[in-house]
Write a structure and sequence with these properties.
heterodimer; A: 362 residues; alpha+beta; Rossmann fold; OB fold (Dihydrolipoamide Acetyltransferase, E2P); 2 domains; 8 helices; 21 strands; globular; B: 565 residues; mainly alpha; MetI-like fold; 0% strand
Amino acid sequence: MSIQIAGLRKRYGESLAVDGVDIDVPEGKMLVLLGPSGCGKTTTMRCIAGLEEPHEGEISINGRPVFSRAASVNVAVHERRIGMVFQSYAIWPHMTVHENVAYPLDMANTPRAEKETRVREALALVGLDGFGERGASYLSGGQMQRVALARSLVMRPAVLLFDEPLSNLDARLRDHLRVQLRELQTQFGITSVYVTHDQREALAIADEVAVMQGGKVVQRGDPVAIYRRPKTSSIADFLGYSNIFDAHPVEGGSGLRVALDGQDAVLETLDPLPSQGPISVCVRPEDIHIQPEGASDGPAGNEIEGEVTLVSFMGAFHQCRIRTPRGAVWEAHASAMAQPIRLGQRVRLILPPAAVLLAPRL
Amino acid sequence: MRGRLLESIAGLGVMGLLLAILTVLVVIPFGMLVYASFLTAVPFSGERDLAFTLANYTDLWSANLGRAFINTLIVSIGGSAMAMVIGGGLAWLAARTDVPGKSLVHLAGVMPLFMSLLVAAVTWSLLGSGRSGYLNLIFDYIGLPFRIQMQSLWGITFVHGLYYAPYPFIFLYSALTLVNADMEEAAAVHGGTMARNLRRVTFPLVKPALIGSFLLSVVLMAEDFPVPQILGAPVGIETLSISIYKLMSVVPAKPTQAAAASILLTLVVFVLIFVQRLVLSGRDYRTLTGKGAQVRPIRLGRWRWVALGLVVLYALVAVGLPMLALLQGSLRSNLFIRDAAALFDTSQMSLVHLKAAFFSPAFHDSLINSVLAGVTTAALGSIFFFTLSYVVNRTTLPGRQLLEYLAMTPIAVPALVMGLGILWTWVRAPLPVYGTLAILVIAFLTRFLPQGYRTVSSSIRQVHDDLESAAMVAGATRRRAIMTITMPLIRGGVVASAFLMVVLGLRELTASLLLYTTKTRVLSIVIYEQYVNGNWAQVSALSLIYTSLLVVLTLAGRRWLRAQL
């Protein structure tokens, strides 16, 4: 089973919610559509399910077209054999857990004995055996999402769609369910599309990530590539590069050097210069080392001095904000194990050249 | 693609059907009125030479109509002011203070809705008209030099104020419970005194509800028919709705002029509704309920008993006295009452009128008619309102906005006006509708369309889109998804609207009065006829039974009715 989408367009009145999306999801893989709200990721997914009708484009599931504007094909939602897990869970509150999970089988007129077995299996799979007769409205959020998952799996769907399935759950439960979800997906090898705005979740669960902005897919790649090499400064911003500054290349020295606009800093980088247009320097806070001023070790390289204006303990590290003499604010993570950083302290930030990313300013 | 095509054809078919129904219910009757108001005779009435004329409008500008216009303003604005004071006071006591017996305050706030305005007007005319009004007899007996005269502008205003108080109560109670949670505490934390908080925070927050419920009361009173008909018309006091009715019932009738007057009344109401919408700008305060966060109620100290006393006084005057009057009226064996002592003379009492009323064929027939009309309206209405609400809220079919506008239009069309339009639409129609209960069902469906639609619509909106989408993804067709998921989930809202139809249908008088025939009398009509005949004992006895029926029904269904009235 695979999904191919070509030239997908969907308008709402004047605005284009989806503006020419092309996507391939190979059999058994999980594609994550990642982007801020309003970027068109949910609309794209709803077009796959058939809940929205695109204005242009083609969608095929396993080589069979389910939508094609050109060929006038539009398979009805209920004939697409899709499993979908909604952000709102969409558990029917007037039914029991068993009735919820059995619903797709009822719609397919599955024989009674087979139905019972499959419902039991599906509930066991998500760890809800014994919950069958429970009223669905008496479940907790996590349990509801498990029921939704069981309901999607029970019909042995061609593809599985996840619409921000974890965003209504608390942090601990979210991590737990995410792992379980990924396990089930790989175990059964179900081709899946997963929509989220949470970059951590996206990277953790995906075989491939497609970053969407303004109705377009702006970058695709495996999670590591997406994490390490965002294509533009705005993608970098969305992916957690919290230090993004305008810069321009400068002559002299060995290797490539860039000067930050409005700051007295020139940084060395290993990154190649983007072919054209203005550039930004993007640095992840966890790639920066913080040193108390005065403590000097190693050769002086990419260094920035400033004063600590915020220290926030995050468990594994301290999140710090550092203000340079010319007013720029940097964010850096100090290891919780190292010498503690104090508010108001003067520090030096060390940026390894490999951590300094150059991206077109967009 | 074939499935999709069928679905979109089905969608357009449903759309067309709904539009057709709304056209028949709303557009044609009102269009008929507008059309007739510019003609020399009612269209399709058999009159040969119809000509265009403005005379219907120019003839309206008599001193009489000017007087009626001013009277309408007096009874509706004066009545609303009184209703606001009563309803607002009760709402504030119930929502914000430590008044004892809060459930009693609640009950007093909505109780007058049990009384139909017809019965209210009739009983107050028993209580306070002329020398033989029960209250005047009692005043005479205890030597008070003062008499009340309910058959007057003040009487009409008073009855309006007394029985429309529940509307501001419901609006303001919701608004006050909504406000109290955080905002006042925030104001207090930031150092405001109580008086300043009331003025700077509470009042501005409640203001839309205040203005909104005031305007709603004015609208309801301006178009009201039973109260001015019973307390005003006999002594020559007219409001606009009385003028319209008179133009219809004089011999020879002046129907086209009645149409012109109807358009005028509708315009007045329309302007008021428009202003109300503007003020509320889409906020429905009755559906917003507080989070239930209990804030410290305002301590009334000694005044709490005074407040309770006032609440009890209101309940007595609005409900207690009228019920006693009805009891008195129906138990008297003869009509003449010499003095107050005779009121309590048991030898003059008997059950003969109550028995006669209860076993009369008129009562039975009209009860059956009322129930039939009410239940049919409820059954047809439920299907219709559900389909309408579903199409408006859950589909992307073109024209669904128009459907909603049409469904809400009857709010701005007074009952008497709508009744007139429906009469002219069906009286000559080739379908056998006029003279049967069907025309009453049509009238009820039209009149209660806004309430019914809104009730079902709001419950559909509470059901998340995803629930139905999930069913379709799971392999259900849209029709099956509606039947297995959406329908069961909004059953409560549909039942509520059906129940509302039955109760409102039972209380309806105004449109029925224009549409009934001897075979299709409903309860309210029988009472009205007995009143016109001057048969007070029967009026009292029937009203007593009628009101008891409404009380039982309302109490039985109060959990469905709470938010809807």
